[in-house]
Design brief:
Layout (H helix, E strand, L loop, with lengths): L2 H6 L8 H13 L3 H12 L4 H13 L6 H14 L1 H17 L7 H6 L1 H17 L3 H15 L2 E2 L4 E2 L4 E2 L6 E2 L4 E2 L4 E2 L4 E3 L11 E2 L4 E2 L4 E3 L3 E2 L4 E2 L4 E2 L7 E5 L2 E6 L5 H4 L5
Parallel strand pairs: 1-4, 2-5, 3-6, 4-7, 5-8, 6-9, 7-10, 8-11, 9-12, 10-13, 12-14
Antiparallel strand pairs: 14-15
Helix pairs in contact: 2-3, 4-5, 5-6, 6-8, 8-9
């Protein structure tokens, strides 16, 4: 990921390069008359990236009883109180842009990719959870699950530069930790092994690649830059830089690239 693009967004009075690229793509896409109004309202009329993000996600999450305007106030409050949310959202956009060959520009994740939408909704839900506003956090979790097919508990700790490809069926439990630069595909579960309470979910360290349908269960550690093959069921820790595959998973070797999450190579 080009960290300079994200870092510069935090500099006082500096140009926001991620936002600039999104606006440029939106201006080009506005040539499609059917989408011109949406692109203007969501992107081109917004002064900042955070405004576009809150406007779009609030529209998606709105219900008859909880209108978009109220939900947007929640998102705006969280983004203003914790600038790290906006920076992480930018880093996630760049992760999607650089790791997904189907992504044509940074505009795509912001507008269309439900893995990205669920991830950003979970960031605001996590902020609410830490403020003690747990009922509202659960509301956002429920809306994201219903809308995007991704269920992330508001207490889960998720780093930046995360790529959730396709998103459908991803489940991340209450005490799970996902560090920076992780990539996962649809159907991934970071779950527990029963009804025990307390710290009971996986700790996924930086740069890990979790293949489609991988199930990682229990309070175990997946070491930095490890690779979990598609369809595997992982019940024991995986050392850093190792590849695990199978049901139950076993270590089958070492990864052959520095950060498998960046390469997105699903072969073993």
């Amino acid at each position: 990921m080009d960290s300079a693009l994200v870092k510069n967004a935090a500099e006082p009075r500096s140009v926001d390069p991620v936002w600039a690229r999104i606006r440029e793509a939106a201006q080009a896409a506005a040539a499609e008359p059917v989408l011109a109004g949406t692109l203007h309202a969501t992107i081109l009329s917004q002064p900042k990236f955070e405004g576009a993000l809150s406007y779009h996600l609030a529209r998606l999450a709105a219900t008859t009883e909880v209108p978009a305007a109220l939900i947007r106030q929640i998102f705006d409050e969280a983004l203003a109180a914790d600038p790290a949310i906006g920076l992480a959202a930018r880093a996630d956009i760049m992760a999607f842009t650089e790791r997904d060959p189907a992504c044509t520009s940074p505009l795509d994740p912001l507008l269309w990719f439900k893995g990205y939408h669920a991830l950003q909704t979970s960031r605001v839900a996590h902020w609410l959870w830490l403020q003690g506003r747990k009922t509202l956090a659960h509301f956002l979790q429920s809306r994201a699950s219903a809308l995007f097919g991704v269920d992330i508990h508001p207490n889960a700790r998720i780093g930046k530069g995360i790529f959730i490809d396709h998103g459908t069926g991803v489940v991340i439990g209450e005490t799970a930790v996902v560090e920076d630069g992780v990539s996962m595909l649809h159907g991934v579960t970071l779950g527990g092994t029963g009804k025990e309470r307390g710290d009971r979910h996986p700790k996924v360290r930086r740069g890990v690649l979790l293949g489609a349908g991988a199930k990682v269960l229990g309070n175990i550690e997946i070491g930095a830059c490890a690779k979990i093959a598609a369809g595997s069921v992982v019940l024991a820790p995986v050392p850093a830089g190792c590849t695990a595959a199978g049901v139950p998973a076993r270590i089958i070797g070492c990864v052959d690239v520095p950060e498998p999450a960046l390469e997105m190579d699903q072969t073993i």
